[in-house]
Every structure is written in structure tokens, then in C-alpha cells.
Amino acid sequence: MGHTRTSVGRKSVVILLAILAVVLLWSSHPLAGDKDEEIQDTILRQIEAFANDDEEQAWAYASEGIKRRFGSSGVFFDMVRQAYPAVHSATAIEFLERVPHSDFDIQVVKLQGPDGKRWDAYYRMVQMDGNWKIAGVRLQEADIGI
Question: I want to staple 57 with a disulfide (CB 3.0 to 4.6 A). Which of 14, 49, 85, 133 is the partner?
């Protein structure tokens, strides 16, 4: 019996390498689902910065509009500490839906504050220079349910 020898031609190798390159490039670009992860990561990192009393890091996740409004990281940090204790000192965080709009997205988050109260937080997220920033948060006491 004779053996059949198959050889992969040079053209086949080039095609396989081209396909591999496309797959690698495609996987390095954010997918639509990655938007959720990027937004959630931004929110989590800012909450973590608040928990660590890191004014500058918390400020880094604020949008330019927030920065203009408050003027400095200290003023911003103090406002959040006093007016938004559930954001400043969250003890539980659960991400719900993201609602896209034309110029911004709203990320709904369930928070539990240090006093045990539960809140629905509506984070207004804007993209600036390819990064998601927090342009505002509206808190509403969460329905406890049945």
C-alpha cells in the first residue's frame, strides 16, 4: 500500500496566518457586550476609590461636566460623602440594565448603603476620548418588594 502524502502549500499557510491575524485583531477590539463591562468597571473603580478615601482616583472617573461643576477633587469628594453615602460607602452592588441613549448611557445599579438601606442608582455615563466617565448619579430609594 502506498502512503498518501498531503502537503500544506505555501499559499495555504499564508491564508491560515491571515485568518489567525484577523481573529487576533478582532478579539482585541471591544465588542458591543464589552461596553457593559467597561461601564461597570468605571463605576466599580470609582466606588472603590471612594471606599479607599482616594479623592484623586474618584475624581479621575468623573466627566468634564462634573469637574467644571465642582472645581476640585476635594469639593467633589466631600459632596459625595455627605449627599451620597450609598455611593461613597456602598456595602453591596448589583448591576442591572444599561439603557443606551444617543449621547450617553444610563447604567442602573442597586446599591446598599452603610445604613443597610437599598437604593436604585441611575449612573449617567458618557464616553470621552475612548473612556467611560460618570456624568452624574441619581439615587432613588429601592422598592423592597413583597
Answer: 49
The 3-state DSSP class for residue 25 equals helix
Going by their DSSP bridges, the two strands 118-128 and 105-112 should be labelled as antiparallel
Helices 73-83 and 32-51, axial angle in degrees (round to 10): 90
Give residues with Cβ within 8 angstroms of 138, minimum separation 6. 121, 122, 124
Which domains can be identified in the chain, with CATH numbers? Answer: 30-141 (3.10.450.50)
pLDDT 10s digits, 14-32: 454 445 444 444 444 445 5
- Rounded distance, CA 41 to CA 24, Å? 23
